[in-house]
Specification:
Elements (H helix, E strand, L loop, with lengths): L2 H6 L2 E7 L6 H9 L5 E7 L5 H8 L3 E4 L8 H15 L3 E5 L1 H14 L3 E6 L4 H4 L3 H13 L2 E4 L2 H10 L7 E3 L15 H7 L7 E6 L8 H8 L8 E6 L6 H12 L6 E5 L4 H7 L2 E4 L8 H8 L3 E5 L2 H6 L5 E4 L4 H13 L3 H15 L2 H13 L1
Parallel strand pairs: 1-2, 1-4, 2-3, 4-5, 5-6, 6-7, 8-9, 8-11, 9-10, 11-12, 12-13
Helix pairs in contact: 4-5, 5-7, 10-15
C-alpha cells in the first residue's frame, strides 16, 4: 500500500454501550460523524432493541452481546475481543462503567491502536462509598489511551481522587439536539388526564426516582409558602413503585400536597412537557453533567437548579437561579426570585445562545474527532 493510501485509509471506530435504549447521544454520533474519515460501528451489551433498529435505518452496522448475569462476564470479554479482531477496529470508544472495564480487557487483548473511554459519571461511586467501583474506575481510566470527561468537575474527580494522569484526560462537553415533539401530545388532554387545572403553573423535574436526585427538596419547598399554591410539579423519569417513590408519596401526604405532584414515569414526550412548563427545577446533590438543564435551555425555559459544579459549567448566574440542594429555604427563595423577576426573558435568551455555542452534538463530535487524531 502506498503512503498516500495509508494516510487516506478510513479508520473504523467501535462504540460500545450498555443498553439498547434509543439513545439520541449514540444516534447523533452515527448521523454526524465524518464519513470520509471514519467507519462507525455501534452496539451494546444488551439484547436487540430500539437502538439497533434506529441504527439499521441509518445504515449503521450494529451488534449485540446480551449477557443475563454476572457469571457470564468472561464470555462478554471473549465475544467483544472476537468482534474487534473480525472488524479490524482502529479506535475502541467505550461508554458506561462495566462496558469500559470489560472493553479495556478485550481491547488490550486485541491490541487495538487506541482505546478511548468517555466518563459519563463523576463522583457517584465516591458518594455511595463503593470502594471496588472507585478502584475499577481508576484502573479503567489509567489503562485507556485517552479519557473524555463530560465536565471539568468530572475531570477533577479523575485526577484528584482516582490519580489518573492529567495528560490523559480531556474535557469535551456532551452535546444535545433539541428534542422532537410528539404529535400525539395535546396539552389540554394531558392536563385533564392528570387532573391539573388549566390555569395552573407547572414546574418540571426530569429525573429518575432515586435519593441522589433529591426530589423531596422540591416537595418540601412547595409546602413553605402560599405563594406557590397554584404550582403543580411534574416529575418525569423511571422508578415508579420503588422505595424512594414510596417515601415521596408519604412526604406529599404529610405536606398535604396530594394532587399537586404528578409522577409521570418514563416519557418519550419530554420536549412537549418542557414546552408546557413554566420552569425546570433540578435539585440533584451531584451530576457529572445535566442533560435536562440543557434541554430546557434549548427551549428557552427558566432554570432553577442546584448549586453544584457541573451545573455551573452548563449555565451561569445570568441564566439560572441557583440554590443549595441541602437547604429547603434556599430553593424557596430561588423560586420566589424567579416569580418576581423582570428579566426572565433575557435570561432564557442567554441560555439558548450559550447552548448553541457550546453544547450541540455537532460541536461534541467535532471535538471527538480532533481528540482521536491527537
Amino acid at each position: 500500500m502506498q503512503n498516500s493510501e495509508i494516510l487516506n485509509k478510513k479508520k473504523t471506530i467501535l462504540h460500545v454501550t450498555n443498553s439498547n435504549a434509543k439513545s439520541q447521544y449514540l444516534l447523533s454520533i452515527a448521523r454526524l460523524y465524518n464519513k470520509e474519515k471514519y467507519n462507525v460501528i455501534i452496539g451494546c451489551f444488551d439484547g436487540y432493541g430500539e437502538l439497533n433498529t434506529e441504527l439499521e435505518k441509518m445504515g449503521i452496522e450494529t451488534f449485540n452481546i446480551p449477557i443475563k448475569n454476572n457469571f457470564q462476564y468472561f464470555f462478554k470479554i471473549i465475544r467483544l475481543y472476537r468482534l474487534i479482531k473480525q472488524k479490524k477496529i482502529d479506535i475502541l470508544h467505550l461508554h458506561t462503567f462495566f462496558v469500559s472495564f470489560i472493553g479495556i480487557l478485550s481491547g488490550r487483548m486485541a491490541r487495538v491502536q487506541q482505546i478511548v473511554v468517555t466518563r459519563h459519571h463523576a463522583d457517584q461511586h465516591i458518594r455511595l462509598k463503593k470502594k471496588i467501583h472507585i478502584a475499577i474506575d481508576s484502573w479503567t481510566a489509567k489503562k485507556s489511551d485517552k479519557v473524555i470527561a463530560v465536565s471539568k468537575f468530572t475531570k477533577n474527580i479523575l485526577i484528584k481522587t482516582e490519580n489518573v494522569p492529567e495528560r490523559k484526560v480531556k474535557v469535551i462537553y456532551n452535546g444535545i439536539e433539541p428534542l422532537l415533539y410528539s404529535t400525539q401530545f395535546e396539552k389540554n388532554s394531558f392536563l385533564s388526564e392528570n387532573k391539573i387545572p388549566v390555569d395552573a403553573n407547572l414546574f418540571l423535574c426530569i429525573s429518575r426516582l432515586y435519593y441522589e436526585k433529591n426530589i423531596a427538596l422540591i416537595i418540601n419547598a412547595l409546602a413553605t409558602s402560599d405563594t406557590f399554591s397554584n404550582f403543580h410539579l411534574l416529575v418525569a423519569g423511571s422508578g415508579l413503585g420503588n422505595k424512594y417513590h414510596d417515601q415521596l408519596i408519604s412526604l406529599i401526604q404529610s405536606k398535604k400536597l396530594e394532587g399537586r405532584v404528578h409522577f409521570l414515569g418514563f416519557r418519550n414526550d419530554i420536549a412537549n412537557l418542557i414546552s408546557i412548563s413554566d420552569a425546570l427545577i433540578h435539585p440533584s446533590f451531584s451530576e457529572s453533567f445535566g442533560f435536562a438543564a440543557l434541554e430546557a435551555m434549548a427551549q428557552e425555559k427558566s432554570l432553577i437548579i442546584s448549586n453544584i459544579p457541573s451545573f455551573h459549567e452548563i449555565a451561569t448566574d445570568e441564566i439560572a437561579y441557583f440554590f443549595e440542594p441541602t437547604d429547603i429555604n434556599s430553593l424557596s427563595k430561588a423560586i420566589t426570585l424567579w416569580i418576581n423577576s423582570r428579566d426572565n426573558e433575557i435570561r432564557v435568551k442567554k441560555g439558548k445562545k450559550r447552548f448553541e455555542m457550546l453544547f450541540t452534538f455537532k460541536t461534541m463530535i467535532s471535538e471527538y474527532e480532533k481528540y482521536y487524531e491527537e
